[in-house]
């Protein structure tokens, strides 16, 4: 399935981009505060190449390392990072869908036809390295030495915008790799050894940080959103904290529907059963499962 040479690390991918003229080196001094973001945004909108800033600085102090930006600025580069051409991406999607929900095997010929897909899946398994640069014992890293940008004027400080953050639930052992969560979060640099992470309430890292475990109910809700199917949440009306309001805003932005379970007094219900029946009918109607069940307001 792979059409391009393997890229064992980021350096190999960058070298490949340079070889095909899809990497532009910027040898002029560029300020990490606002200026670099403006250049990145221009390259992104123009469908331009990846950028390597060799002389990044902030406040007149030059960074100790270069900065690579706009790496995923085009669909073709995203496909290349996966080892494919843009035309091959639909095939990759079909393979991933088949691996997620494989159809029953129908005979020997069908089994043999799936062997290339199985080979690709086996090659995609992670490999555990016992000696790698990332595992070298060093002094505690100084986060302020990372050339982190301050993208926008109202940002509170420099942000590491694409860190892969590894978390595991409290009380688990380091070798329980299956319990690990890898997520990408915006991380604001506060000092040499301090970061602030922007947790999203619906993400695995936030659940781990809050001491919460996934449930079948929350998993089902996540599937509804991912598949762009109706999701209706009956959220209590009070008391609501800022956390509740932000979570409801996030769900709404993702396509969910917040339905406060309040009585429809225009129906003049006689008892609690009538109130709950109307609320349940409104929820079912919002799921678009069939003909309307709730008594609508007639004006």
UniProtKB/TrEMBL annotation:
It comes from the Bacteria. Residues 15-85 form the 3-octaprenyl-4-hydroxybenzoate carboxy-lyase-like N-terminal domain. This is UbiD family decarboxylase/polyprenyl P-hydroxybenzoate/phenylacrylic acid decarboxylase-like protein. One of its GO terms (biological process) is ubiquinone biosynthetic process. GO terms for molecular function: 4-hydroxy-3-polyprenylbenzoate decarboxylase activity. InterPro entries: Flavin_trans-like (IPR036551), UbiD (IPR002830), UbiD-like_N (IPR049383), UbiD_Rift_dom (IPR048304). Residues 131-207 form the 3-octaprenyl-4-hydroxybenzoate carboxy-lyase-like Rift-related domain. One of its GO terms (cellular component) is cytosol.
């Amino acid at each position: 399935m792979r059409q391009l040479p393997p890229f064992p690390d980021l350096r190999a991918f960058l070298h490949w981009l340079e070889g095909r003229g899809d990497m532009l080196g910027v040898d002029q001094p560029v300020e990490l505060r606002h200026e670099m973001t403006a250049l990145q945004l221009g390259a992104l909108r123009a469908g331009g190449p990846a950028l390597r800033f060799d002389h990044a600085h902030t406040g007149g102090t030059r960074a100790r390392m270069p900065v690579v930006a706009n790496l995923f600025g085009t669909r073709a580069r995203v496909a290349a990072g996966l080892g494919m051409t843009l035309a091959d991406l639909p095939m990759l999607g079909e393979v991933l869908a088949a691996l997620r929900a494989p159809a029953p095997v129908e005979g020997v010929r069908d089994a043999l036809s799936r062997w290339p897909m199985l080979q690709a899946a086996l090659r995609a398994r992670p490999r555990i390295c016992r000696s790698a640069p990332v595992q070298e014992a060093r002094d505690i890293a100084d986060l302020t030495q990372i050339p982190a940008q301050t993208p926008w004027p109202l940002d509170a400080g420099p942000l590491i915008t694409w860190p892969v953050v590894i978390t595991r639930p409290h009380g688990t052992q380091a070798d329980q790799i299956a319990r690990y969560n890898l997520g990408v979060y915006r991380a604001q640099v506060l000092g040499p050894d301090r970061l602030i992470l922007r947790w999203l309430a619906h993400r695995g890292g936030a659940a781990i940080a809050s001491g919460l475990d996934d449930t079948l109910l929350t998993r089902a809700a996540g599937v509804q959103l991912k598949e762009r199917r109706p999701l209706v949440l009956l959220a209590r009306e009070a008391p609501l904290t800022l956390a509740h309001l932000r979570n409801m805003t996030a769900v709404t932005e993702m396509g969910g529907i917040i339905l406060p379970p309040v009585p429809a007094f225009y129906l003049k219900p006689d008892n609690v059963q009538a109130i709950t029946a109307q609320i349940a009918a409104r929820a079912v109607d919002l799921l678009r499962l069939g003909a309307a069940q709730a008594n609508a307001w007639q004006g």
